[in-house]
Amino acid sequence: MDYVPGPHQRLFKLFDEFRSFVGERVNTHKASLDPNCPRDFIDAFLIKIEEGQKNGDTIFTEESMLQSTVGLFFGGTGSVSHTLCFGLLVLLKFPEIEAKVHEEIDSVIGRSRSPGMADRSKMPYTDAVIHEIQRFLALAPIGFPHAVARDVHLRQYVIPKGTTIFPVLKSVLYDSREFPNPEQFNPGHFLDENGAFKKSDFFMPFSAGKRICLGEGLARMEFFLILTAILQNFTLKPIVEPKDIDIIPASSSVGNHPKPYQLRVLCR
């Protein structure tokens, strides 16, 4: 594909620029590395590289560190930004939902401080809205492929060792037995009859099993903090009538994402 003209060439160029950026950060970390006090992922990886060189272990290399660091950025920033953009679109479509979130933010957090993760357990409605945004979007409707490590018996089937499995996550996220009317956006899917947050084993936007997305915890934290900070300070206003807003996600080879839209934000 390097020799075929097309829009993917711009993607390759941007990827090379990003690798160069990460490479510069790696060099900066090398110059100030303290093995007794690692500051972040790159420091920890550099320490492992040094240990591997002493032990003759070639698993940890600078190239694998570069690829892993780039992968963390690509895997985290795109997924969180797409989900956040979709969440704002949903709130434009349903101003009554936004109003309830505003009310909960004012009650629990107020206006004098920034949101914190400790607030989430006290905000069941906001938490339910966030879960429903992720469920409805189904960012990765077909999860990343995995291979079974041994022969697996599943109901009346036998999955031979080494078989590649593609988990169809949307079939679970849109299961009508767990989520009545799954094609409709409804935060009530994650609330019990008393308005308390209700967990669901069917909620798996980050894939399933032991190989679940490594960034799940970070993504959950980012999405909650960023969305609540925006709604703490602003009211969202659509450019068109809410009834004309289309929240059905667009699909690509990568996954689902919100369709392009415009909005206004007003200070609260």
- Name the beta content range: 5-15%
**What is the average per-residue confidence, as pLDDT, rounded to a whole number?**
92
How many domains, as an integer? 1
Structural class: mainly alpha
User: What count of helical segments does DSSP give?
Assistant: 7
Q: Tell me the Rg in angstroms.
A: 22 Å
Whole-Å distance between the termini?
Answer: 50 Å
The H-and-E topology, N to C, reads as: HHHHHEEEEHHEEEE
* Strands in their spatial order, largest beta sheet: 1-4
Q: What's the CATH H-level homologous superfamily?
A: Cytochrome P450
CATH class label: Mainly Alpha
Low-confidence stretches: none
Word description of this protein:
The protein has one domain: Cytochrome P450 (Cytochrome p450), CATH 1.10.630. It has 7 helices and 8 strands; from the N terminus they run αααααββββααββββ. The strands form 4 sheets. The protein has a two-stranded antiparallel sheet. Strands 2-3 form a two-stranded antiparallel sheet. A two-stranded antiparallel sheet has the order 5-8. It is globular, with a radius of gyration of 22 Å. It has helices spanning 8-31, 41-55, 62-93, 95-108, 124-137, 169-173, 216-233; strands at 146-147, 152-154, 157-159, 164-165, 234-238, 250-251, 256-257, 263-267. It is mainly alpha-helical and 268 residues long. Helix content is 46%, strand content 9%. The longest helix has 32 residues, at 62-93.
